[in-house]
Amino acid sequence: MLEQLAQPQADAAALSATGVSPDWERRRSSAFIIDASYGTRCSTVLAIGRDGAVRFAVRRTWRSPRTGVVYPVAMAVRVGGREWTLEPLMDDQELDARASTGTLYWEGAVRVRGDPGPGGRGYLELTGYGGRVPY
Predict the structure, then answer these.
(1) CA neighbor of 92 nearest in space, from 113, 78, 71
(2) Residue 50's pLDDT band (cuts 50, 70, 90)
(3) What is the pLDDT of residues 89-113, one digit of tens each?
(4) How much is the pTM?
(5) What is the distance of C-alpha 94 from the center of its chain?
(6) Which of 48, 54, 61, 70 is the least buried, fewest Cβ under 10 Å from its Cβ?
(7) Mean pLDDT: which of 18-27, 32-41, 81-90 is highest?
(8) Which fold has domain 54-127?
(9) Quick check: bond before 22 cis, omega within 30?
(10) How many CB atoms lie within 10 A of CB 106?
(11) Coil, strand, or helix at residue 71?
Protein backbone atom coordinates (compact mmCIF):
# COMPACT_ATOMS: atom_id res chain seq x y z
CA MET A 1 0.00 0.00 0.00
CA LEU A 2 2.83 2.45 0.80
CA GLU A 3 4.23 2.08 -2.71
CA GLN A 4 0.82 3.00 -4.15
CA LEU A 5 0.63 6.09 -1.92
CA ALA A 6 4.08 7.15 -3.12
CA GLN A 7 2.79 7.48 -6.69
CA PRO A 8 2.32 9.47 -8.77
CA GLN A 9 5.11 11.96 -8.58
CA ALA A 10 4.53 15.33 -10.20
CA ASP A 11 5.68 16.16 -13.71
CA ALA A 12 8.67 18.51 -13.87
CA ALA A 13 6.46 21.30 -15.31
CA ALA A 14 4.17 21.14 -12.26
CA LEU A 15 6.93 21.59 -9.68
CA SER A 16 7.38 24.79 -7.70
CA ALA A 17 10.61 26.77 -7.88
CA THR A 18 11.65 26.26 -4.26
CA GLY A 19 15.40 26.50 -4.71
CA VAL A 20 16.12 22.78 -4.44
CA SER A 21 17.03 20.63 -7.44
CA PRO A 22 14.15 19.49 -9.70
CA ASP A 23 15.00 15.85 -8.94
CA TRP A 24 14.81 16.50 -5.18
CA GLU A 25 11.50 18.36 -5.62
CA ARG A 26 10.01 15.61 -7.85
CA ARG A 27 10.93 12.79 -5.44
CA ARG A 28 9.14 14.68 -2.66
CA SER A 29 6.00 15.58 -4.63
CA SER A 30 3.85 12.51 -3.85
CA ALA A 31 1.49 12.27 -0.88
CA PHE A 32 3.65 9.61 0.79
CA ILE A 33 7.42 9.87 0.39
CA ILE A 34 9.74 6.87 0.32
CA ASP A 35 13.38 7.88 -0.04
CA ALA A 36 16.63 6.75 1.58
CA SER A 37 17.41 10.28 2.83
CA TYR A 38 13.91 11.58 3.57
CA GLY A 39 10.50 10.16 4.48
CA THR A 40 6.95 11.05 5.31
CA ARG A 41 6.72 11.72 9.01
CA CYS A 42 2.93 11.79 9.23
CA SER A 43 0.28 10.26 7.03
CA THR A 44 -3.39 9.48 7.02
CA VAL A 45 -4.97 6.25 5.87
CA LEU A 46 -8.73 5.95 5.62
CA ALA A 47 -9.79 2.31 5.58
CA ILE A 48 -13.34 1.65 4.42
CA GLY A 49 -15.17 -1.61 5.07
CA ARG A 50 -16.50 -3.79 2.27
CA ASP A 51 -19.93 -2.33 2.88
CA GLY A 52 -18.42 1.16 2.49
CA ALA A 53 -19.11 2.07 6.11
CA VAL A 54 -16.86 3.89 8.53
CA ARG A 55 -18.54 4.33 11.90
CA PHE A 56 -17.68 6.86 14.58
CA ALA A 57 -19.03 6.53 18.13
CA VAL A 58 -18.51 9.26 20.72
CA ARG A 59 -17.04 7.86 23.93
CA ARG A 60 -16.53 11.10 25.86
CA THR A 61 -17.02 14.84 25.41
CA TRP A 62 -15.24 17.86 26.84
CA ARG A 63 -16.68 21.35 27.43
CA SER A 64 -14.32 24.28 26.92
CA PRO A 65 -14.20 26.47 30.03
CA ARG A 66 -13.48 29.51 27.82
CA THR A 67 -16.10 29.18 25.07
CA GLY A 68 -18.59 26.62 26.41
CA VAL A 69 -18.33 24.57 23.21
CA VAL A 70 -18.69 20.80 23.68
CA TYR A 71 -16.34 18.62 21.60
CA PRO A 72 -16.42 14.80 21.18
CA VAL A 73 -12.75 14.39 22.14
CA ALA A 74 -12.73 10.61 22.65
CA MET A 75 -14.27 8.26 20.12
CA ALA A 76 -14.24 4.81 18.63
CA VAL A 77 -13.77 4.33 14.89
CA ARG A 78 -15.06 1.07 13.43
CA VAL A 79 -14.27 -0.25 9.95
CA GLY A 80 -15.59 -3.74 9.24
CA GLY A 81 -14.56 -5.96 12.15
CA ARG A 82 -11.80 -3.66 13.44
CA GLU A 83 -12.12 -0.86 15.94
CA TRP A 84 -9.75 1.85 17.13
CA THR A 85 -10.23 4.02 20.20
CA LEU A 86 -9.01 7.63 20.02
CA GLU A 87 -8.26 9.32 23.33
CA PRO A 88 -6.74 12.84 23.57
CA LEU A 89 -3.41 13.26 25.32
CA MET A 90 -5.09 16.21 27.05
CA ASP A 91 -8.62 17.52 26.68
CA ASP A 92 -7.91 21.25 26.35
CA GLN A 93 -6.64 21.53 22.76
CA GLU A 94 -9.19 24.10 21.58
CA LEU A 95 -8.07 26.84 19.21
CA ASP A 96 -9.91 30.13 19.06
CA ALA A 97 -9.35 31.48 15.56
CA ARG A 98 -12.37 33.76 15.46
CA ALA A 99 -10.12 36.80 14.94
CA SER A 100 -8.54 35.28 11.80
CA THR A 101 -10.64 32.51 10.21
CA GLY A 102 -13.81 33.19 12.17
CA THR A 103 -14.10 29.78 13.78
CA LEU A 104 -13.48 27.80 16.94
CA TYR A 105 -12.09 24.32 16.62
CA TRP A 106 -10.36 21.55 18.50
CA GLU A 107 -7.26 19.89 17.14
CA GLY A 108 -4.62 17.89 18.85
CA ALA A 109 -2.68 14.79 19.66
CA VAL A 110 -4.51 11.54 20.38
CA ARG A 111 -3.50 8.08 21.53
CA VAL A 112 -4.85 5.32 19.28
CA ARG A 113 -5.57 1.83 20.59
CA GLY A 114 -6.46 -0.97 18.21
CA ASP A 115 -8.81 -3.87 18.90
CA PRO A 116 -7.52 -6.17 17.56
CA GLY A 117 -4.17 -5.02 16.36
CA PRO A 118 -1.72 -2.21 16.77
CA GLY A 119 -2.37 1.30 17.94
CA GLY A 120 -0.20 4.37 17.91
CA ARG A 121 -0.45 8.14 17.94
CA GLY A 122 -2.55 10.39 15.80
CA TYR A 123 -3.89 13.87 15.20
CA LEU A 124 -7.60 14.66 15.41
CA GLU A 125 -9.27 17.79 14.10
CA LEU A 126 -12.85 18.72 15.06
CA THR A 127 -14.54 21.66 13.34
CA GLY A 128 -18.08 22.98 13.28
CA TYR A 129 -18.94 22.28 16.92
CA GLY A 130 -18.74 25.97 17.85
CA GLY A 131 -21.02 27.01 15.00
CA ARG A 132 -20.95 27.01 11.25
CA VAL A 133 -17.48 27.06 9.68
CA PRO A 134 -17.47 30.21 7.50
CA TYR A 135 -16.24 28.75 4.17
Answers:
(1) 71
(2) confident
(3) 999 999 998 888 778 899 999 999 9
(4) 0.62
(5) 16
(6) 48
(7) 81-90
(8) AttH-like fold (2.40.370)
(9) no
(10) 23
(11) strand
